[in-house]
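User: Can you write out an input/output pair for a complex, sequences first and structure second?

Assistant: Here is one pair. Inputs:
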Amino acid sequence: SEMSKDLLPGPYPRTPEERAAAAKKYNMRVEDYEPYPDDGFGYGDYPKLPNKSLHEKDPWYQWDQPDMRHNWGEPMHWDFDMYIRNRVDTSPTPVPWHTMRNHLLAFLGTMLIMFALGEFYPYYRPVGPKQYPFNNLYLERGGDPNKEPPVVTHYEI
Amino acid sequence: MAAGPPPTAAQAYRPNRYVSLPAELDPDTYDASPEKRRAEAERLAIRARLKRQYQLQLNNPKPPAVIEDPALLRWTYARTHNIYPTFRPTPKTSFLGAVYALGPLIFWAVAFKVDRDRREKLIQEGKYVRPFSVF
């Protein structure tokens, strides 16, 4: 782009003067400016903003870009495209997150255990072998119609 | 040992990486010290300056074709062009690179090889039932 090198992001700031210059470049207060830790991950001097999604930003304020809830020149979060309003939402939940997680895992775990038990120990009403009429379907199974079929009884008295 | 006082609402809520603390439970909202007011005033001054710059460009009788947002340009530059110069091989980055780049490659290569060998063994023994599918 046509911006000069001192307006574009650069390497991690080492001296306090570089930090002040970086804060000024990103339109932030020097006290607010906090770069990502210098772990060699490639962040450079980009500021580390709180990981809050755009859902939490004020919906009633007159933003310059209302759909992105972003003002012109304001530093954007590194994961801005993740935190848009169509995607990840970090707004506070009515129930604490750990409570919700525990309830979900308890339900899923119970259902899984019950289904596994049913798989290994199936339970059904007692059944017997199927009984066919007409002397065990003698004619349908190709028995000779002239011969006397063998009598099949399925009961005992 | 007696139980301590019950957890405060903020402690019971426990914000984490996925949800943040609501403003009502955050003690910073109720902090009305002069330092905080000065910080807010400075932030407002920066915001007002940026608003003024933007509005001047927007309401210009001969506006430029595109009003470039330097924050957006810096964001794209940082995410695309600034990664390679600021990257540094450290133990952590090397380990993560191996896990994410080499891990799946080696895993799937081994998985396919083992599966193919097993199928070849079954075919040689004559026990393999070839699957039939119209799709």
